[in-house]
Amino acid sequence: MLLIILMATTIQDILTQISQGISQHTDTPILDAQVLVAHILGKPRAWVLAHPEAQIKGDQYKKIIQASEHLEHGEPLPYVIGSWEFFGLDFYLTPAVLIPRPETELIVEFAIKWLQDHPNQRKVIDVGTGSGCIGISLAMSIPDLTVLMTDISPNALNIAQVNAHKFGLTRRLEFKATDLLDGIVGRFDLICANLPYIPSHNLNELVVSDWEPRLALNGGENGTELIARLLYQARGCLTPGGLLLLEIESSQGVEVKNLAHTHFPAAKVEILNDLSGQNRCLKISSSHLLVHICQRKEWLSAQEQGIYISYSLNQEGFIHCSQPQQILQVANTFYRGVSELVLCWIDPGKVTSEIKWEVVDEAIFPHIYGPINLDSVISVTDFIPDEDGTYRMIELPG
After folding, report:
1. pTM to 2 decimals?
2. Cα distances (angstroms) measured from residue 201 to each of 59, 95, 197
3. What's the fold here for domain 8-75?
4. Domain ranges across the chain
């Protein structure tokens, strides 16, 4: 880079110099130059554009030259200036976290709309939070929201905590260093995540991997390894009637949708497109119903008696129930070989006995402490295993 040796130079001169020097590293060299100069001058970009004749002197000139040299070596602009805008907020950044992308705002937009439509559902978890841009944007938009923010990287979690403090949200946000949902106990109305989704073998071909943390980019052999794990874990963490939003790569729509149907067989599963029409977000709307497994003869007996009382109620004091996404695992663990099973689909709002959500093997299950009144059972469906005795599908209520 040919340095301008004058003691003072104009904004227009320095913008031209920077944009020419970084043109091979960015598709927006003029814009990047304007943002850099505005940041170091402490002025809005509009001011920089309106004062091309203004002179830059002293330390500010030196800082601009030093920063532009980082850009010329390919370092991304957000890391050079130490911040980046996302959803109208200016987030502190370091190379410990991914640079927030505009397409990720799609998750925030859909989440805010859903939270506004569900005013009683205010418990959120942001998995793989990175800079905290998703969880913080939600908390800034919904004043009574509480968010648990997790990341496997302690360094990334530190950045998220800095941003939470910056926006005055430390009282409503919690932080936990963990791998996806490992060790997370509790139920969440909304689960959001922007996980690594680039296949491992593609990383070396991408310039982004030269600067941004590979831990936040590497999605495993086919790019969906972490996504599949999260969907498996989320079955016991998402509340009935809750929502899961997950960013995906544009080519993964069909595969991820199939994974979602496997882990959430009773949920409404959709793939949302970004503004360019590309697959960008997985949306899982879970059923609000609870499910109880029993033999058909038990259900017929309950109809005769006018109330359902299971063996477990007499022995343990409660009736075992599950969320729909937990049923296949429960059936294959405890009910293989049991004949003539049915699924009783229960509306929890109509149950007259007490429902307690309790931890069993690190998952949350609903237990009904008392008989089940029959008018709370909205449907009873057949539950039939495949020829090898494995339960792989459930019949949904009509």
Report:
1. 0.91
2. 44, 22, 12
3. Helicase, Ruva Protein; domain 3 (1.10.8)
4. 8-75, 84-285, 290-383
